[in-house]
Amino acid sequence: MTRTVGVFVGSLRSGAHTRKVARVLAELAPGNLSLEVVEIGQLPLYNPDFDGADPPAAWTAFRERVKPLDALLFVTPEYNRSIPSALKNALDVGSRPAKQGAWDGKPGAVVSVSPGALGAFGAHHHLRQVLAHLNVATLAQPEIYLGGVADLLDESGALTKDSTRALLTRFLATFAVWIERNPAPGRS
Fold first, then answer.
1. Is the sign of the CA dihedral 147, 152, 154, 158 positive or negative?
2. Which of 61, 86, 114, 128 has the smallest count of CB within 10 Å of its CB?
3. Is 77 in contact with 19 (CB distance < 8 Å)?
């Protein structure tokens, strides 16, 4: 059975390393995973005042896009030692209405990406805190921190290092097993 994995790219910047890494992950995914980017840049900022009987159409469309996913994969850079505001906003939008959140009970994983040496360590762990609160069963190991990402990708966005390809391939194989062991509610 093929599992559909929503990929949430934390950076909105055109040419972002995170988007390039998301494409690489989709290419390396095992045959039982279908990775699909779910766009977050169109979402108005979350405001509970607008989440009544008639929420913004973009919020409703986003929630409906997330609900049927079998799993979640977050590819994030680090902004000011945390996650980008667009990603946090998407998490907030998807978590509502209360007790009906689109994230609830789904298996997930995090890949953090940085041109610096720390591989977006701060963002990675802040995101894990939020995912724990949203009841996302987040894969603990292997943790993927891609530091020095500019040296890992060529101009077209292809991986330049076989060791990184092997690491990401192992990560995705482990994630596929995690998804099967922790199915989203209503899926088995």
1. negative
2. 61
3. no
Helices (H) and strands (E) in the chain, counts: 5, 6
3-class secondary-structure state, position 102 = coil
Whether 91 contacts 134, CB under 8 Å: yes
* pLDDT-wise least confident of 68-82, 93-107, 110-124: 110-124
pLDDT recorded at residue 130:
98
Residue written as tokens 């610096």?
116
- 103 DSSP assignment: S
Are 145 and 118 in contact by the 8 Å Cβ rule? The answer is: yes
> Token match 């000011």: residue?
80
Dihedrals phi, psi of 74, to nearest 5 degrees: -105, 125
Length of the chain (residues): 188
